[in-house]
Amino acid sequence: MADDRFDLIFRGDIVLGQPLSDVKQRLQRLFKADEARIEGLFTGRPVALKRQLDAATAQKYQKVLQQAGALVEVVRSRASVERPAGKHGFSLAPLGGLLLKPGERLQPAPPPVVAGAFTLRPAEGPLLDREEVFRAVPEPVIVPELDLAAVGEYLLSEEARGDLPLATVAPGDWGLAEVGSDLLTCEERRSEVPAVTAPTLEVAPVGSDLGELKQHRAPVAPDISGLRLEGD
Questions:
Q1: Where are the alpha helices (DSSP H) in 41-177?
Q2: What residues contact residue 177 under an 8 Å CB cut-off, 6+ apart?
């Protein structure tokens, strides 16, 4: 297995998230090649960048090319990767490239248009003849016989009005109270006093401790080393 040789095959694939233009510039600096030669690597066909390499050297080149943004495949040298693709041979086109060559693209023929049956209308005239204009048949609209009543008149006639029953009210026992007098008599007033449950509370003497948490602060020792007494 130590005598096995490997080839580096490039099909135009790049690292996800890498701009294609930046990858091409890095490959130009890496291979010291011109732009046309680097463009030839991105045709979608497998290209052998290095041949007959041992496993360690092949992995080293693969890592360097991956850092540049190009994805290469390490295959054994005895595998014929440059032979023309057969009936079942497939390869991936580079990101942003065309899937078909210019000669393989289907050029659709323009549809035949017979212009002898068309004429031009004057700019100010209608596009359709009178016989070609679709005329919709108007549907009959039934409008009821309605009229507006004069301002202030009843909307209903006397025959259409119904007699509404009047409520029976006996105001004999009603009267008006004097201004400032009570509206209710002593018998009508509610004399029950609602019960109020007050909690058992006591008033603490002045200056007593109410149970608050006191903050213990360390006494401040001022620095008096810079002070001195002046003599008379």
A1: 55-68
A2: 183
Residues 66, 15: contact at Cβ < 8 Å?
Answer: yes
Query: Which two three-digit tokens encode residue 160?
Result: 């259409």
Checking if the pLDDT of 31 tops 80, the result is yes
Separation between Cα atoms, residue 100 and residue 196, nearest integer Å: 96
What is the value of pTM for the model shown?
0.34
Which of 85, 86, 13 is closest to 49 using CA atoms? 13
85 pLDDT band (50/70/90 cuts)?
very low
Nearest to 46 by CA among 21, 83, 18: 83
Q: CA nearest 65: which of 104, 36, 30?
A: 30
Tell me how crowded residue 30 is: count the other CB atoms within 10 A of its CB. 14
The confidence band for 79, taking pLDDT boundaries of 50, 70 and 90, is very low
Residue 42 corresponds to which amino acid?
F
User: How many angstroms separate the most distant Cα atoms in the chain?
Assistant: 133
* Dihedral sign from CA coordinates of 39, 69, 62, 85: negative
At 113 the three-state DSSP class reads coil
Question: pLDDT tens digits, residue range 108-132?
Answer: 778 777 777 677 777 777 878 888 8
The mean per-residue pLDDT over the stretch 49-64 comes to 89
**């030669």: which residue's tokens?**
37
